[in-house]
């Protein structure tokens, strides 16, 4: 029995629901061992005000997902599909380090983001014709997850190679995207522009960074439209 593991809910696959496993902890937003502190950080970065009961619910869901992956490894094989994303790579690194029977965990490296539905049928057909990487093969390139704990953003530089960034590191890209518009535009349009260029982080993260730049005065807002402060034009 083989299960297919994905690290994003925004993936269109040819597999039946019972064949799929999911695990999406958003490690690219910061790696902290204390789960409560990590949840609080994620909420701040996404601009979400969660209650303690919601926080507990998310933690339980992630534990259930890990348990499901562990159970699948105990009775069969699991193939993980990873695109060029720090979040996906870090989640795989965590599971490879902490789960038993990781010799039954195989890996498919996807050349490009998995969330583009238009390319999914061709992508899965092509990759299915190639054997996935075995533990002997992937363990050579996969670093130890326990050695990469950081409180800051994690950006992917190359295959399983990451750099740590400050929370406002990508703000210049947001300001530059806004500079391309001659008239005030909806926040959603700016976020969509940035997300299209850098889909590694959740959309809510970019909305929160826009809000932070509005708070700092770099971006001005009138009703639902935004524009750059005159000094930044």
TrEMBL record:
Protein's name according to its UniProt entry: Uncharacterized protein
